[in-house]
Structure formats: structure tokens, C-alpha cells
Amino acid sequence: MPTDFTNTRRAFHLPEGVTYLDGNSLGPMPRDAARRVADMMTDEWSQMLITGWNKAGWYVQPRKVGDRIARLIGAGPGQVVMGDTLSIKVFQAVSAARALRPDRRVILSDSGNFPSDLYVAEGLAKAVDAELRVVAPEQVADAISDDLAVLMITEVDYRTGRRHDMKALTEKAHRHGALTVWDLAHSAGAVDVDLLGCGADFAVGCTYKYLNGGPGAPAFIWTNPDLAEQAQPILQGWMGHAAPFAFDMEYRPAAGIERMRVGTPPVIAMAALDAALDVWDDVDMADLRARSIDLTQAFIAGVEANCPEVTLNSPRDPSQRGSQVSFRHPDGYAVMQALIARGVIGDFRAPDVLRFGFAPLYNDLDDVAHAVDILADILANRTWNRPDFHQKAAVT
Fold this sequence. Notes:
Helix content is 37%, strand content 14%. The protein is built from 14 helices and 15 strands.
């Protein structure tokens, strides 16, 4: 049965008068999330106290929620676990992959990667006497060589929406004896990811963007089952121990993906995320991808027909981009502030990028048409050129 996107839209609280095109930065609140969090606090935390770890299943929650995400990224049951932040999961995945290739020093990434991933890899490289090598996104394939230990790539570029070919790059890395780590921050819940089908080795991602888990929602990590018993991350935490409550002085890794747990899971945040994942139960990922392409293609066509002052900053071919579209304007920050003031919420990325994320679960073609009309009006009448629209806030 085709996915009913009218029904999925009803599952979200979308403020009156707002066209929300920033789900690639923070998803809106699912209507059921507040009740689920309240129930957790009043029925579980308040009444069960510490016994909630067993009675309410808090301890096993990272795996149960991970299984719900697994289907959305082409992974299998028991292969995904939740917890900690995305930066920590990047560190775990890259360090584990590097340790599996001890005779190699190079970690390869690209300049379109999210800076935080590069910061993590740079710090790890200094700690383990490795080299972080960064090339332009279009040069990644040619830069894969026999000295490569780890290919660390964010599948969808956070600024341009450019989508790497996961299968082709993974296959080439494997031919040269390297392992792959894929960051799915702008992929999970936005495009049709197939980790097992592509033969990837490790993957990580956040849940507060297209998965709508809320600000600060926990990250996830996946390990290919062929490597799960070999992977040994540097960051060894209590919850990743084979027997945490034996309180051994020496670390023994838990079986499989459980060893990728680190600290105490964020139980309240995971209750909100679990509510957000309910909407995905009736979503076909092929339908999601088709709708994403319809929305982004319509937006590009509308903007280019009505807004000659901006320049497309995303791939024109939909097969080469995720579910976001970026345009460039010399005063991009001020233009975006003017849009937000008119109820069309996207975001800005330095130095001059207007970024619009299209979330198929709740965005429709009416949103596209309205956003195009407002952007065209702002540019034609230069209403963006107000002093207050040029004053940058702490979060841009």
C-alpha cells in the first residue's frame, strides 16, 4: 500500500502560519512525543525509581530503539544501538575501523564533510599516529589508495546536499583493503539508505534531524555483522562491557553491537525518539525517496523561474543529492532572516548559502509553492536589506 503522506503530516505539531523547511537541522515535534515523555516521567521514573531499569526496560531501550532505526537504513535486527552524541559515535567507529587496519595510517575524508567529523578524526589521528587526508568531494574516489585504512564520509553534504555513491565508494575502498565509516546525519529518514546492500562497514547518525527525535536526541551506531565481533573501539565504556554489573576491573567487550555502548542511555530523550519513530511504521522508503525528489525538483524549478538573484548550490540531478536544496546569495544570512520573519524557516550556512530541507513526512507541494512566492517577494523588493536582518545570532 502506498505511503499516506497526508496522514504522516498530521502526526506532527506544525505551528500555524509556518512553512518549515529546516527538518535537516531539527525536526518538528511529533504530536505524541510530549505525552510519551510525560508518561515515562510520571508512570516510570516517579513510581519505579531505580527499578525502572528492569521493570520499564530502560536498560535494553538502546537496542530496542536501534532496531526501529535499522529498517530505515538498510540494516538488520540487533545491529544498531543508541546512545551518546554523534561525535562520540564517529570517534568509536573510526577508531574501531583504524584498529582493524593497524598497518595503515591514512584516514580519508572530504572537505564537504561536517567539520565536527573532521575535528574528531583529526584528534584521533594525533592520538594514534595516523594521518587525516582531506580532498574535495569529487576527488574522493581517485584518492582511495593502498595506504588507506579508513574512508570516513558523510553520505549527504550538509551544505550542498550532494550525495556520495555509497556502494561505489565502499566497493573501491574494499578493493584497496580499506574499511568505510558512513555518517548518515543527513541521510537517515531522508533517502533510501542500504547499508547491508552496499557492504558498508560502520555507520553512525543523529536522530534530531529527519528522524524528529528532538534537540539533543541520541545518536546511533551500526557495525556490519561480519565485523561486529572484531571491532574494538578505543572509547570503552561501562555499558559496553560484557558484564557491567560484575564490576570487573578489566574491560571485556560485550558481544556484537553492544560493545559500542558507552555511558548511561538518555532514557527521557529516548522516550521522545521512540514516539517519533512510530510514524515510520507505515512508511515505505521508496515512496519517501520519490516524494523527496518531487519536492526538491519543484522547489528548484520554482526558485530558478522566479528568483534570478540566487544561484543553485546543489546538484541538479536528483540522483546525486539528498533531500535538501541550497542556493547562494551574497547576502544569504539577511535573506534567510527575512524569510524566517515571514514564516518560511530554512537556515543559513557560511559563507553565503541558503539551505532548505524537505522532509517528505510533513512537507508538501503547497509548502514548496508558498516558500517560492515568499522568497521571490523578498528578493524583488529587497526587504531583506534591513539592519536587524544582518545581525548574526549565536546559532546560524
